[in-house]
Amino acid sequence: MKENKKDIERLFQEKFKDFEATPPLESWANIEERLNQKKKKRRVIPFWFKTSGIAATLILGVFLFMNKKDNLNTNVNEVVIENNIITNVIIVNNLCFIASLGMFILLFPVFSIIIYHIGFIFKIKYIFLFFII
Amino acid sequence: MIIKQIINDCKNRNTKAQEEVYKALSPKIFAVCLKYSRNYAEAQDNLQEGFLLIFEKIEKYNFQGSFEGWCKRVVINYVLQQYRKQNIFEIVSENIADEANLEVEDENVSLDFLTRIIQELPDRYRLVFNLYVMDGYPHKEIATMLDINIGTSKSNLARAKAILKEKIERNAQMAIPRVK
């Protein structure tokens, strides 16, 4: 009688040693759905970055083109109306300042994306520091 | 056996690779969930959340130790975290002497029955019993994991074993007339 008896811990350890249970079929479908939701959420930010980058370069291109035309016009003005030279120079200077500021603001996300991607490809975490130096 | 390449694909969020891992490990992980949960439905929830967590944290797996063991730990920690949130650990401390004679006859006890009586245990008894008996964690570690003291862990284990023994014996007595 004693031989049939077993310590309760050993009984459970032996019985559950190779215990496996097939989960219900819908479990994987549920997990898959949630995984896909997560993937979509992750994609939102890079997609937004890329589009804004493209938009920024387009706007910049148009802006530079227009600016070039303006510069040509001011040169003509300099010759024709001498009195207005000073005011024109101020306007040109202001335009240059606004253009460089605009360029910086517009180009910043583009450069940061490029730098980020280079860093990501080569797995360099602190790539920003190299560029700052 | 899951090969390194599949795990690396999972790190890159490849759905096919994730499905492979699920197919290979879900029976074992579901077994863990059944033991640690209150019932089948809760085990199913824990399985789903557990696997989502495995795929989320898989980048942290550095190929040291078995992948299956790592996955089990992730799921067990998730389950413990859920119970911690529910504040189930505020049970009055009982001092039950560790009975030496906790022996039962192991004939006619099905795995289903044993699973059910584990699930029926009060939450903390079930967790301590599983961690200590099934997964081999020492009392010291269990105490840290459940944020209780070692004495409580020991007395919870003794209490769990006493309850299980009683249920197995009652079941055996009830089974005899049925056989005849």
Give an overview in words.
The complex is a heterodimer of chains A (133) and B (180). Chain A is rod-shaped, with a radius of gyration of 33 Å. Chain A has one domain (24-132). Chain A is an all-alpha fold and 133 residues long. Chain A has helices spanning 8-15, 26-80, 85-121, 127-132; one strand at residues 5-7. Chain A has 4 helices and 1 strand. Chain B is mainly α and 180 residues long. Chain B folds into 2 domains: 4-85, Rna Polymerase Sigma Factor, Chain: A (Orthogonal Bundle), CATH 1.10.1740.10; 111-179, Winged helix-like DNA-binding domain superfamily/Winged helix DNA-binding domain (Arc Repressor Mutant, subunit A, Orthogonal Bundle), CATH 1.10.10.10. Helix content of chain B is 71%, strand content 2%. Chain B is built from 8 helices and 1 strand; from the N terminus they run ααααβαααα. In chain B, helix 1 packs across helix 2 (15-36). The longest helix of chain B has 30 residues, at 150-179. Chains A and B meet through strand 1, helix 1 and helix 2 of A and helix 2, helix 3, strand 1 and helix 8 of B. Strand 1 of chain A pairs antiparallel with strand 1 (103-105) of chain B, so a sheet runs across the interface.
Structural class, judged by helices and strands of chain B?
Answer: mainly alpha
Structural class of chain A: mainly alpha
Fraction of residues in β-strands of chain B: under 5%
Helix content of chain B: over 70%
For the record, give the distance between the C-alpha atoms at the N and C termini of chain B, rounded to a whole number.
46 Å
Helicity range of chain A: over 70%
The CATH class name of the largest domain in chain B reads: Mainly Alpha
- Quick one: which chains have the greatest interface? A-B, 28 and 34 residues
Task: Give me the CATH architecture of the largest domain in chain B, please.
Answer: Orthogonal Bundle
Query: Rg of chain A, please?
Result: 33 Å
Q: What is the count of β-strands of chain B?
A: 1
Biggest pleated sheet of chain B: none
Corresponding CATH superfamily of the largest domain in chain B: RNA polymerase sigma factor, region 2, helix turn helix motif
Please tally the helical runs of chain B, counting DSSP H or I stretches of 4 or more residues: 8
Q: Give the H and E element order of chain B.
A: HHHHEHHHH
CATH topology of the largest domain in chain B: Rna Polymerase Sigma Factor, Chain: A
- Largest pleated sheet of chain A: none
